[in-house]
Amino acid sequence: MSQRTVVIASRVGLHARPASLFTQAVAASGALVTMGKPGEPSMDASSILMVMALGIGHGEEVVLESEDDGVLDQLATLLETDLDAE
Amino acid sequence: MSTQNAFLQGVGVGRGAVWGPVATVRPAPVVPADEPFPADLAAAKEKVLAAFSDVAAGLRAQAEGASATVADVLTATAQMADDPALRTQTGQRIDKGEPPLHALVAVIDSFAVMFTAAGGYLAERVTDLNSVRDRVVARYQGLPEPGVPPLDRPAVIVAPDLSPADTAALDLEKVLGIVIERGGPTGHTAIIAGQLGLPCVVRATGASSLVDGDIIAVDAANGTVTLDPDDATKAAVETRRAGLATLAEATEDGATADGHRIALLANIGTAEDAERLTDVAVEGVGLFRTEVLFLGAATAPTEDDQARVYARALSALGGRKLVLRTLDAGADKPLAFVTQEGEENPALGVRGFRLVRHAEGLLRTQLEAVTRAAKETGGTPWVMAPMIATVEEARQFAAMAREAGIQTVGVMVEVPAAALRARDILAEVDFVSLGTNDLAQYTMAADRLLGSLVDLLDAWQPAVLDLVAATAAAGVETGKPVGVCGESAADPIMALLLTGLGITSLSMSPSALPAVRFALSRHSLETCRAIGEVARQAPTAAEARAAGLALVDPQVREILALG
After folding, report:
1. What pLDDT score does B168 carry?
2. Residues B118, A47: C-beta atoms closer than 8 Å
3. Contact B79 A23 (CB under 8 A)
């Protein structure tokens, strides 16, 4: 199992459109990915409800976990982009 | 639209009207408390999960045909319906032996509780969660989808009530109007309908008896809903729709149908108000209430301060007309530095021009400030004094104003004494302006601030009309302008009557201008005169208005909803 710690770049945090784009990307990857705040239990990263419920704000850190390193890199890049600006 | 009896009576929002087919908003389905445990657990689970998928697919299909904003809302809701956590948790609960719909509701409610506790953006998503819940439950039960149905043709939305989410999901290109059974004239549905310009009737008791495909006519001006409107009612609706659209766009100067000119002016209180008129179709300002500068001040504003404000107003108006009224303080507008204490009856006390009796300097400073502003801007303001009762007062003011360098001098006619002797007053000044609110107060001996006496303060009171007519006649006789700057100028029927009496300008709040401009443009001067004659023969205010209204063009009555 690999991990990536990522800082959320979207100004609104991981809500609304950024959360929607992120969870869709997770689902599209087909990989099992979990996500959580550092030191807290992790959740299914493809669930928009779970991801939104984490309440992650702009500039906060999250930990991504998956067996698939390629998918992790791709998702980390996505979170480091301001998804609300596009 | 009185050709047919109304089917429903509610409270209208706006003046619009529309007719079309009904599209009912279906209520949320109910999960029975005694929901049975399914015999086949696996099949029941399968059915719930299929319902989730079907709802998501349905929302996505709906999003494809919708406008961008609505599509975003629908896509986000579809994603929730597809959410893996909802499915997994619902499946787990069913496996543990909960009836399927109870399991589904419990899972969604747990997210709703969490989102509500988080507040802010998440709390606002609870409506979307509930909408997913209602849709999936309905799907599972084989019921039609709850909420606003997808519209395949323009329709009138009919519902017990609309949630903000329902309202946001309305496809505005296809919604003709809204009828709701609950709500109120200040509720969110009414506010949104108002902003969108959609004809809307709220508190329409009995609206739930309407079914999809019923044809109804909605009249927001009268708050009525007519079932199966006949051709005459439909034609009346079309007239109102087309008329309201054109009158909002008209910008021409005020004139009767046969070209008799009536200046349409605005009432303002500050230089900022004048600046806001830049893009408004208005010929100028008929009343600049300068007391706003003085009210709330501990000492009188200096000549410099005043000159700056008047210059700003003149510049903002460019070459357009500006009628400035000198300080009207006292009575309900007391000033710290000038109002006499111990007046038992201030409405009849030292107010308006009467302040000159003990504070002449105040008026002289103001007149100097106006002259300076006029010189600086190249403008030519007209200046008038409030609360003139006698010829001597008019003469005294005219002398002071001309001495200060004002070219066009006038007085307000708002005391019956001045109206009755308007011819003599006009011999002293260049113009007069009727303040119908104070004129009604002093004619009817009724405090204009008392809501309980509002019937007495009606500008249609025959005695008030007589005084207005006497003043207008003096203007016609002397060939000098007589304007009206009270609220009555904003009443389209009264505006026609005033024109018929020989009034030369009407000044009102800018929002009232389009309706008055439109009414004038649809009547000849001869009709206006006839309205004046029949109204003045009536013995009561209500009969005077009714007599005038009877001569108003039916199409204008329909479009302006003059009942």
Report:
1. 64
2. no
3. yes
Q: How many CB atoms within 10 Å of residue B449?
A: 11
Output the six-digit token pair for B80: 């929730």
A15 catalytic per annotation: yes
| pLDDT single digits (tens) A9-20 | 988 888 878 888
| H/E segment holding residue B22 | strand B17-24
Last residue within a domain, chosen from B125, B141, B157: B141
Phi and psi angles of residue B169, each rounded to the nearest 5 degrees, phi first: -85, 0
Provide, as residue numbers in chain B, all residues whose Cβ is less than 8 Å from the Cβ of A24.
79
3-state helix, strand, coil in chain B (%, to 5): 50, 15, 35
Judged by a CB distance cut-off of 8 A, whether residue B83 touches chain A is yes
Q: Are residues B358 and B498 in the same domain?
A: yes
C-alpha distance from residue B447 to each of B202, B295, B427, B450, B497 (Å): 34, 21, 31, 6, 25
Q: Do residue B371 and residue B478 come from a single domain?
A: yes
Instruction: Quote the percentage of chain B above a pLDDT of 70.
Output: 96
Contact between B263 and B481 under an 8 Å Cβ cutoff? The reply is no
DSSP letter, residue B200:
E
B275 and B294 share one domain: yes
pLDDT digits (tens, 9 = 90+) for B66-116: 767 667 777 888 999 999 999 999 999 999 889 999 999 999 999 999 988
User: Taking the model in full, what pTM does it have?
Assistant: 0.64
Q: Which two structure tokens, joined as six digits, stand for B41?
A: 């657990």
What ipTM was reported for this prediction?
0.88
